[in-house]
Amino acid sequence: MPQLKMSAIALCCLLASACTSDTNSDLIKTEAIWSDVLVKSDGNGAKVIAELNVSKRNGNNINLVNGDTLSVTATNAAISADMTKNMTKDDKLFDIDYRAEFPYHQADTQYEIRLYRAKDKVTLSSMVKLPEPVSILAPQQGQTFSEDEILELHWAKATKIRDAQSLKIVLDSTCKNGNKEIKSSYIYSDVEDDGMLGIDFETTKLFKQEGLTKNFTCKVSFSFERKRYGTVDSRYASGSRTYAIQTKVLDSINVILN
Predict the structure, then answer these.
(1) How far apart are CA 109 and CA 67, in angstroms?
(2) Any residues with CB less than 8 A from the CB of 56 and at least 6 apart, and which?
(3) Is 35:56 a contact under the CB 8 Å cutoff?
(4) What confidence tens digit (pLDDT) does each residue in 83-104 have?
(5) For a tag on the chain, would you pick the N or C end, based on fewer CB atoms within 10 A?
(6) What residues form DSSP beta bridges with 93?
(7) Pick from 221, 209, 228: which is nearest to 255 by CA?
(8) In whole angstroms, what is the distance from residue 186 CA to residue 201 CA?
(9) With 90 as the cut, is the pLDDT of residue 18 above it?
(10) CA 177, CA 45: separation in Å to the nearest integer?
(11) 177-204: buried (b, 16+ CB within 10 Å) or exposed (e) per residue?
């Protein structure tokens, strides 16, 4: 039994070590740095999250040292404002990324993310502009629908659609009956951003799960993600990306099962 416990502890340590593998930036050539930068807003400010890995997505995390730094400049033309911040390291949850927060969430706010390499005295620059914030118009939280009717989902359509922009809507359902709970999801990908989508629950099969009866109380939620891709400095490794998303969630919509 003690041997089993020690083995389990050793395994946990190995797993933790694997998850936290990192390499100092001064050991990595610029062209071997894979960059993944996300600017995310829910209509209340924005968070910038940058991850740097060796060569590819699942490569070792890169730990910036010896003068190598990440910084972000946000330019909000709508209110004639700009702000620059250094990104700070976040190594929680066995991973390393770099973060900064800004008060700007308006459409077309430009975020420029710069990586400075001290040894070579060069700066890599990637940019992205936020898409429009998502504004959900109908239905309203707490409204009730039958599973056999078409629910019309309305939102303010995008008026500033740019290249490589998309809209995704995730429909989640939670049905409860006493201690029993059944969850399911359905994804609408590449939704036309014209302000309306008819939700046919029959098509989604959310309420056709085994064991689900009209005795269950069901609620659904809609999670919107409006995404726009930006530019990536050509000196980064292949597959690097820079993108921005606006999110919004409508929850607590009741659905009556027949």
Answers:
(1) 28
(2) 34, 237, 239
(3) no
(4) 999 999 998 877 899 999 999 9
(5) N
(6) none
(7) 221
(8) 10
(9) no
(10) 39
(11) eeeeebebebebeebebeeebebebeeb
Same domain, 152 and 120: no
Do 52 and 96 fall into the same domain?
yes
- How many CB atoms sit inside 10 A of residue 120's CB? 10
CA dihedral defined by 79, 162, 171, 196, rounded to 10 degrees? 90
247-257 in b/e form (b: 16+ CB < 10 A) is bbebeebebeb
Which range marks the domain in which residue 158 is found? 136-256
**Residue keyed to tokens 């389990």:** 8
Q: Which residue has the tokens 């990306």?
A: 241
Mean pLDDT to the nearest integer, 161-168: 88
* 147 and 177 assigned to the same domain: yes
CB contact at 8 A, 153 and 138:
yes
Kindly report the backbone phi and psi dihedral angles of residue 242, in degrees, each rounded to the nearest multiple of 5, phi listed first: -135, 125
Amino acid at residue number 95: D
Question: Does residue 51 form part of some domain?
Answer: yes
Residue 243 lies in a domain: yes
With contact defined as beta carbons under 8 Å apart, do 218 and 255 qualify? yes
